[in-house]
Amino acid sequence: MIVGSLLLILVAIVLLAAGLFSGSAAELGGSIGTSLLAAVALLAGVRQSAAGGRVPQQRPGADPPARMPAGVQARLAGLSDPVWVVADEPYFHLHHCAQLLGAAGRETPVSVAVAAGLVSCASCRAADVLMADMPRG
Ligand SMILES: [Zn+2]
Q1: How far is the CA of 92 from the centre of ligand 1 (A)?
Q2: Is-above-0.85 flag for pTM?
Q3: Residues 118, 68: Cα–Cα separation, whole Å
Q4: How far is the CA of 87 from the centre of ligand 1 (A)?
Q5: Which residues lie near ion ligand 1 (Cβ < 5 Å)?
Q6: What pLDDT is recorded for position 86?
């Protein structure tokens, strides 16, 4: 999967160069589309290799991950609010979460965290807090 994404990146670069050289919008569009496919393939590959290797790190005090309801996932998938994630951990957090202490957290949009299969941290209840800010609809 990771090799496939690297090939897609190569194709995207070739299309970009061809598009820039010829001024063709179709080739530039193809380059963008191929880049997006490469990103998806890379994400899938990274998740696959992470799942195949080690058991996700569970720090003391953290509840075991439970799948979020589909409705919650769908609502969060439409949000771009920042959450914090830690490599090899199955949770996303709010920036002030105690679970992030001593961890190298990385900021990412909640939609990306949900797409990657991460679930809301039970300590900071990131999903609940983010959805509380949403207009009801
Ligand atoms: Zn948290």
Answers
A1: 6
A2: no
A3: 9
A4: 14
A5: 93, 97, 99, 121, 123-124
A6: 96
In this structure, are 35 and 87 located in the same domain? no
Residue 127 Cα to ligand 1 midpoint, Å, equals 10
Q: Catalogue the long-range contacts made by 47-56 (C-beta closer than 8 Å, 24 or more residues apart).
A: 47/116, 47/117, 48/1, 49/2, 50/88, 54/88, 56/88, 56/89, 56/90
Range of the structural domain that residue 28 is part of:
2-52
pLDDT digits (tens, 9 = 90+) for 59-69: 555 555 678 89
Asked whether residue 15 is domain-assigned, the answer is yes
* Same-domain check for residues 87 and 41: no
For residues 79 and 126, membership in a common domain is answered with: yes
Number of structural domains (the chain) is: 2
If you measure from the C-alpha of residue 105 to the centroid of ligand 1, how many angstroms do you get, rounded to a whole number?
Answer: 11
Residue type, 7: L
Are residues 47 and 93 both part of a single domain?
A: no
Write the pLDDT tens digit of every residue in 38-76.
666 655 655 555 554 444 455 555 555 678 899 999 999
